């Protein structure tokens, strides 16, 4: 008798446990972080972009490309020259390739002898951004990278 009394009430008890939680929004997808699902402030209108700086053309540096002396494979240590090196940097004519990030050259301008300021459009790890850094060669075949917010990094040329 007791069993027959509770049996019809089971669906009602199950439904009573379900609440309307619609004010919190949907749960984030497994590939999203919780902050990706939260509405944020509306971004302000961005100012019109400035034209990208470019360097003067020379035989070893066609306009808008990295100078030939900078091109090649660099790393902070000789051990990082291998394919899995975390500090490895490959400089091409219009591209800087880091471990998990690629920067497409947007502009380049000389700062002083052997020193250039480069602006790059980066992509990596699902993000994209624009940043500026200075690259300088010293007389000992070393490359120095200065970037706002980061400690300077010295690279050696990989063989």
Give the proportion of residues in helices.
Answer: 10-25%
C-alpha end-to-end distance: 87 Å
Count of DSSP-assigned helices = 3
Strand order of the largest sheet: 1-2-3-4-5-6-7-8
Q: What is the rounded Rg?
A: 27 Å
Task: State the shape.
Answer: globular
Task: Please tag this protein with its features.
159 residues; mainly beta; Lipocalin; eight-stranded antiparallel barrel; 3 helices; 10% helix; 33% strand
Q: Would you kindly provide a written description of the structure presented here, covering whatever features stand out?
A:
This protein is mainly beta and 159 residues long. The protein has a domain at 72-157: Lipocalin (Beta Barrel), CATH 2.40.128. Helix content is 10%, strand content 33%. It has helices spanning 2-6, 10-16, 34-37; strands at 72-75, 89-91, 95-97, 102-112, 115-124, 127-137, 142-147, 153-157. It has an 8-stranded antiparallel beta barrel. The longest helix has 7 residues, at 10-16.
Produce the secondary structure layout.
Blueprint: H1 2-6, H2 10-16, H3 34-37, E1 72-75, E2 89-91, E3 95-97, E4 102-112, E5 115-124, E6 127-137, E7 142-147, E8 153-157
Antiparallel strand pairs: 1-2, 1-8, 2-3, 3-4, 4-5, 5-6, 6-7, 7-8
